[in-house]
Design goal:
- With about 270 residues, the protein is an alpha+beta fold.
- It is about 40% helix and about 20% strand.
- A 5-stranded antiparallel sheet has the order 8-7-6-5-9, sandwiched between helices. The protein has a two-stranded antiparallel sheet with strand order 1-2. Strands 3-4 form a two-stranded antiparallel sheet.
- The protein is elongated and about 70 Å long.
């Protein structure tokens, strides 16, 4: 992430969306992104684009205004601004709106099999039972669909490959977002854990990766107590608390060490047989 002399923020890999945001006319100077300040108009327009991708069309102005938290009058002005910036929005007041093409995202060229793979993978994520990942899967589906030609978008939204699970793979007992964030940020966490025998212990761990299996989610971690790699089932975690310690940049080297241990074990088993 970079901040220029005017306080604008840019992120590598998101240049298309940000360039589109820059072209959106606004009534005043754009403020730097800050949680303590109101959302800038360009940020609000990007959020409106996302809402038009994700909500079922045609979308009434009242529904969009509710989603955005603005008045209908402000919403009509925002739709006019998007159209002026190049967005193809079908519809009018009293009938509803539909985003035909989204210039904030580059076009995608996917064949039918690739679309089926994508739809199947996202459906499987939704079936895992993790609410945060299920919401993210819906968002990914909408964003990718918005970049496809109309025929391919219909194939994605009505894919022939489906996932049917009467019950989620697992029911999360804790919010795993802090654990995922700790993996990415390479921050240690303290957990209260119940082992297979029912014994409870407090552990300081360095979380490295999350493994989604058929029945549970397991955190591959470096256990500071045992000074070795351990697999902790998240359904046996009673509490997850970030402890403020950083192990950057050790995550990737630790993962390499773990994979090397697995390779050596396979070699040893092969030699014994």
């Amino acid at each position: 992430m970079r901040r220029d002399g005017k306080g604008h923020v840019s992120t590598p890999g998101c240049s298309a969306a940000l360039d589109f945001a820059v072209r959106i006319p606004h009534s005043g100077p754009q403020l730097p992104i800050s949680v303590s300040r109101p959302m800038s108009r360009s940020a609000r327009l990007l959020r409106l684009l996302h809402a038009m991708r994700t909500l079922a069309a045609p979308i009434t102005a009242a529904r969009l205004a509710e989603e955005m938290g603005v008045s209908p009058r402000s919403l009509y002005r925002d739709i006019d601004a998007l159209r002026s910036a190049g967005a193809r929005i079908e519809g009018e007041r009293g009938y509803g709106y539909r985003l035909l093409e989204d210039p904030a995202l580059p076009p995608q060229m996917l064949d039918q099999d690739e679309i089926e793979v994508l739809a199947l993978g996202l459906a499987e994520v939704r079936a895992w039972g993790d609410p945060a990942l299920a919401h993210a899967a819906d968002s990914v589906l909408a964003k990718i669909g918005a970049t496809l030609p109309d025929e391919r978008e219909r194939q994605l939204l009505h894919a022939i490959t489906q996932v049917f699970r009467p019950e989620p793979r697992y029911v999360p007992t804790l919010d795993l977002a802090p654990l995922r964030a700790a993996c990415w940020k390479e921050h240690g966490v303290d957990i209260r854990y119940v082992d297979g025998d029912g014994a409870t212990s407090d552990r300081a761990i360095l979380p490295l990766a999350l493994f989604y299996t058929e029945t549970c989610v397991t955190a591959l971690s470096w256990c500071c107590l045992r000074e070795d790699f351990r697999m902790f089932r998240t359904d046996r975690m009673i509490e997850i608390r970030p402890n403020g310690t950083s192990f950057r940049p050790r995550r990737v080297p630790l993962l390499r060490d773990y994979l090397e241990q697995l390779r050596m074990r396979r070699v040893a088993r092969s030699n014994r047989s």
